[in-house]
Specification:
The complex is a heterodimer. Chain A is about 35% helix and about 15% strand. Chain A is α/β, with parallel strands linked by helices. Chain A has a single domain, classed as Peroxisomal Thiolase, Chain A, domain 1. Chain A has a 9-stranded mixed beta sheet. In chain A, strands 5-6 form a two-stranded antiparallel sheet. Chain B is globular and about 65 Å long. Chain B is α+β, with helices and mostly antiparallel strands. Chain B has a 5-stranded antiparallel beta sheet. A 5-stranded antiparallel beta sheet of chain B has the order 11-10-9-12-13, with helices on one face. Chain B starts with 13 loop residues before the first helix and ends with a strand. Chain B is built from 6 helices and 13 strands. Classes of the chains: A alpha/beta, B alpha+beta. β5 of chain A pairs antiparallel with β9 of chain B, so a sheet runs across the interface. The structure holds zinc ion.
Chain lengths: ~400, ~325
C-alpha cells in the first residue's frame, strides 16, 4: 500500500505575476532549483520527473536545464488541473516501487501573458479525436470556456439547493481575505467585499467576474522521495498519507452534463472515498483543506463530496464562516487560486506542505493532516499530507 | 407546429429557375416504381403496430388484413437503408438542401385507401413527383413546398393505398433575418464529425433530431458512440426525437467574446422526453426569460451554407 511510504521533502516556486518576462522552461527550472534547495538536495540526485500533460516543458528539457543526469522515471498526468495531486501520486508510486528515488513534480506556465485558458479557441472541436468529438457537442453552440462549462453546473446546483450568487461570492470573499495576509499572494493586501463581488460584471451567468480565479504566470515544483529519507533531509517531511486519482461514471472534460446528477462532482467523491480509505482518516481528522478553487461554485460542491458537510449544506457551512481562518475547516489559507495565484493547483500543494511544517503565512494551529484536491469538473486527484 | 403559411413571393433569383426546371423534369418522370417491401404483410408486424398504437381491435388479425394506415410501414426504409433506392423526389430535396433550404416540416399528408392489404401480399411503392411551389415567405423562413404522391401496389399491380405528401423546405431564419443570396460567411465553430456521429449531423441538416439507439437492447444514448455501453452491441440505430424538451440547466454567455457569436447568448442543457440530454442554444427568447424547467421545442438554424445547428425555442406562446 502507498500509505506513508513517500513524502514531499521540498517545495519551490517562482514569484506569481501577470507577466513573468521569462520563458516557461526558465520558470520550470527556477522552481525546481528552489524546491531542491529547500530539500537540501543536489540536482544530480533527481532521477524522476512528473508534470501535467498540458505542461509545455518536457521532462528532459527541464532535466537538461537543471543539470540532472540520468532519469529512470518520467510520467505525465492528464486532464488539465485535475493532474495536480496526480503528479505527486505518480511520484509517490515511483518512489514506493523503486522506479526512482528523487522525483520532481513541476508545473510552469505563462498563463496570463501567454496562452490564456479562458479564451475561446475555435479549434477545440476541430479534430475527430475522442476529445474533439466530445467538445463538438458543445463548442458549436459557443459553450467553450471553462467559466461557461462550470456555470452550467452552477445553475443546476443553485436550482437543486436554493443556492444564490451571494453564496458563491462568500467563497471569493474568504479566499481574498486569506490572500490579503499572504505576502506571496497576488491579492496580498487587497481583500474583496461581497458587494464588490455582486457588482462585478457577468462573465457567464450565473458566474460573476469574481467567481472566476485569476490568471497567473509562474511555476511551482515539489520534491518527492521516500518517507525514510525525507526524515533525514533539511526540512520536516510532509508525509503522503494518501494519494488518489478519480474519474466518475459518464465522465467528460468539464461537460459531464449527461449523467444522472448535475449538482455534484462524482469524480471528487471517488477521490475522497479513496483518500479516506487509504489514510484511515475522516473529515474530522483534517485541520485545514486545500480545495481547488478555479471557480467558486465547485468549492461548495467539494465540501459536500468530501464529506465535510451534507448535500446542499455547503452554502450554509460557508455562511457560518466554516471555511475561514478560525472556522470549522479553514480552506486555502494561502488565498487559493482566487487569491494567491493560479498555478493549476500546484501552489495549493505547496501551501499544504507549509501547513504541515507549520510555516505558512496564515498558519492554522495544530495541523496534523491536510487534505488537498485538484481540478474540478475534470478527472481529478487528491492527497492527504501529514506531519511525520 | 408553427403555422407554415404561404406568403408573398420574394424577388427573382436565377436559382429559382434551376429549381423549377428540375422540378418539371422530375415530374415528367411520372410514377417511378420503388423496391418491393422486404417482407410480405405479416401478422407479427401488425400485432406490434396495433400494440404501439394502442389499437385493441381484433378484427384485423382475425380477418388476416393489415390496418390501412400501415401502408407506409411495409415499405419504409430501415434506419440503415440496405441500398440506395432513389425516388423522383430525392433530387429535388437534395437541390433544395444545396441552396440552403435545410429546414423541413411536413405540411400535408392525405391518405386514400382502396382496399385492405392481406397477409402474404408484398407491397411495392411507386412515387410520382407532383410539384414544387415557391419560393414563398413563411413564418419559418423562405421556402418551397414540395408535393408528391406514393401509391402502394399489391402483387398483382392492384393499388392498395395512396398518399399525397407535402413538405415545406425552408431556409431557417437567423437573427439577421432571411439568408442573403450567395455564400454566407463560414461559421467558425464547427463540430468534428466521424462515422460515429455523422448520423446526428445529417439528421440535423434534414431537420431531424436523431438520438442513437442500440439496435439490440434499444437503449438510447446521447452523445452517441461506437458501441452500446450496456450490451456491447456495435449495431447502432437511431430514433428521431419528438423535438420537445425542457431546460435542465443554462448559462448566459457575456464574456469573453466568442467567434461567430454575438453576446449575450444562452446555452442550455435540454432534457428530452426520450430520456437523454442535449446541449443547444435557446433562441427567440430574451435571456432573462430563460429558466430551469422552461418547455422548449427544437428549431434548426443554418449557421452558414453548410452547417445547421439544432437550437431551442420556448414552447409556450409568448
Ligand atoms: Zn445495447
Amino acid at each position: 500500500m502507498l500509505k506513508s511510504q513517500a513524502a514531499i521533502a521540498g517545495i519551490g516556486a517562482t514569484e506569481f505575476s501577470k507577466d513573468s518576462g521569462r520563458s516557461e522552461l526558465r520558470l520550470a527550472a527556477e522552481a525546481v532549483f528552489a524546491a531542491l534547495d529547500d530539500a537540501g538536495l543536489d540536482p544530480a540526485e533527481v532521477d524522476g520527473m512528473v508534470t501535467f500533460t498540458q505542461d509545455a516543458n518536457q521532462e528532459i528539457a527541464v532535466a537538461r536545464e537543471i543539470g540532472a543526469g540520468e532519469l529512470t522515471f518520467f510520467s505525465r498526468v492528464e486532464y488539465g488541473g485535475g493532474a495536480a495531486c496526480g503528479t505527486v501520486a505518480h511520484a509517490a508510486m515511483a518512489v514506493a516501487t523503486g522506479m526512482a528515488r528523487t522525483v520532481v513534480c513541476y508545473r510552469a506556465f505563462n498563463e496570463r501573458s501567454g496562452r490564456r485558458f479562458g479564451q475561446p479557441d475555435a479549434r477545440l472541436g476541430g479534430q475527430p479525436t475522442s476529445q474533439g468529438l466530445e467538445m463538438s457537442w458543445h463548442v458549436p453552440f459557443g459553450l467553450m470556456t471553462p467559466a461557461a462549462w462550470v456555470a452550467m453546473f452552477a445553475r443546476r446546483y443553485m436550482h437543486a439547493y436554493g443556492v444564490t450568487s451571494e453564496d458563491f461570492g462568500r467563497v471569493a470573499v474568504a479566499m481574498r481575505r486569506h490572500a490579503a495576509t499572504n505576502p506571496a499572494a497576488w491579492f496580498h493586501g487587497r481583500p474583496l467585499t461581497l458587494e464588490e463581488h455582486q457588482a462585478s460584471r457577468w462573465i457567464v451567468e450565473p458566474l460573476h467576474l469574481f467567481d472566476c480565479c485569476q490568471e497567473s504566470d509562474g511555476a511551482v515544483a515539489l520534491v518527492v522521495t521516500s518517507a525514510e529519507r525525507a526524515r533525514d533531509l533539511r526540512r520536516s517531511p510532509a508525509l503522503i498519507t494518501a494519494a488518489a486519482q478519480g474519474s466518475g461514471e459518464g465522465q467528460m472534460m468539464m461537460t459531464s452534463y449527461y449523467r444522472d446528477d448535475m449538482s455534484g462532482l462524482p469524480e471528487m467523491s471517488v477521490v475522497g472515498r479513496r483518500l479516506w480509505e487509504m489514510s484511515g482518516l475522516g473529515p474530522a481528522d483534517v485541520q485545514t483543506a486545500i480545495l481547488y478553487d478555479h471557480f467558486t461554485p465547485f468549492v461548495l460542491a467539494q465540501l459536500e463530496e468530501l464529506g465535510f458537510c451534507g448535500r446542499g449544506e455547503a452554502a450554509g457551512f460557508v455562511r457560518d464562516g466554516g471555511i475561514e481562518l478560525g472556522g470549522r475547516l479553514p480552506v486555502n489559507p494561502n488565498g487559493g487560486q482566487l487569491g494567491e495565484a493560479y498555478i493549476h493547483g500546484m501552489n495549493g500543494i505547496a501551501e499544504a506542505v507549509r501547513q504541515v511544517r507549520g510555516t505558512s503565512a496564515n498558519q492554522v494551529p495544530g495541523v496534523r493532516n491536510v487534505l488537498v484536491t485538484a481540478g474540478t469538473g475534470v478527472p481529478t486527484s487528491g492527497l492527504v499530507l501529514s506531519a511525520g | 407546429m408553427t403555422g407554415a403559411t404561404p406568403g408573398a413571393t420574394p424577388g427573382p433569383d436565377p436559382a429559382d429557375d434551376e429549381l423549377r426546371e428540375l422540378a418539371a423534369k422530375q415530374a415528367a418522370l411520372g410514377e417511378v416504381r420503388g423496391t418491393p417491401a422486404a417482407d410480405p404483410v405479416n401478422a407479427p408486424m401488425i400485432r406490434h403496430w396495433l400494440d404501439a398504437m394502442g389499437d385493441a381491435n381484433p378484427a384485423y388479425l382475425d380477418r388476416g388484413v393489415a390496418p390501412p394506415a400501415m401502408a407506409q410501414v411495409w415499405t419504409m426504409q430501415g434506419v440503415r437503408p440496405r441500398g440506395k433506392v432513389s425516388t423522383p423526389v430525392d433530387d429535388v430535396l437534395a437541390a433544395l438542401e444545396a441552396r440552403g433550404y435545410t429546414g423541413v416540416v411536413a405540411t400535408n399528408c392525405e391518405q386514400t385507401y382502396h382496399r385492405y392489404a392481406r397477409l402474404g401480399e408484398r407491397l411495392t411503392p411507386a412515387t410520382r413527383f407532383a410539384g414544387l411551389a415557391g419560393p414563398k415567405r413563411t413564418a419559418l423562413g423562405e421556402g418551397y413546398f414540395a408535393t408528391w404522391n406514393v401509391t402502394w401496389y399489391a402483387d398483382g399491380d392492384e393499388p392498395v393505398a395512396e398518399m399525397m405528401f407535402r413538405v415545406l423546405k425552408f431556409r431557417p431564419r437567423t437573427r439577421t433575418g432571411t439568408a442573403p443570396a450567395g455564400r454566407r460567411e463560414p461559421y467558425p465553430l464547427r463540430p468534428a464529425v466521424n462515422g460515429d456521429t455523422a448520423f446526428f449531423w445529417e439528421g440535423v441538416s434534414r431537420g431531424e433530431l436523431r438520438v442513437q439507439s442500440c439496435a439490440d437492447c434499444g437503449r438510447l444514448r446521447h452523445p452517441p458512440g461506437p458501441l452500446c455501453p450496456h450490451c456491447r452491441s456495435a449495431d447502432r440505430s437511431y430514433v428521431t426525437a419528438s423535438g420537445e424538451g425542457t431546460v435542465y440547466s443554462y448559462v448566459v454567455h457575456h464574456h469573453p467574446p466568442v467567434p461567430g457569436r454575438r453576446t449575450p447568448f444562452v446555452v442550455a442543457v435540454v432534457e428530452l422526453p426520450e430520456g437523454v440530454r442535449i446541449v443547444g442554444n435557446v433562441v427567440d427568447c430574451p435571456p432573462e426569460d430563460v429558466r430551469v424547467g422552461l418547455p422548449v421545442r427544437v428549431t434548426y438554424r443554418a449557421m452558414d451554407d453548410d452547417l445547421v445547428l439544432p437550437q431551442w425555442t420556448p414552447r409556450e406562446p409568448r
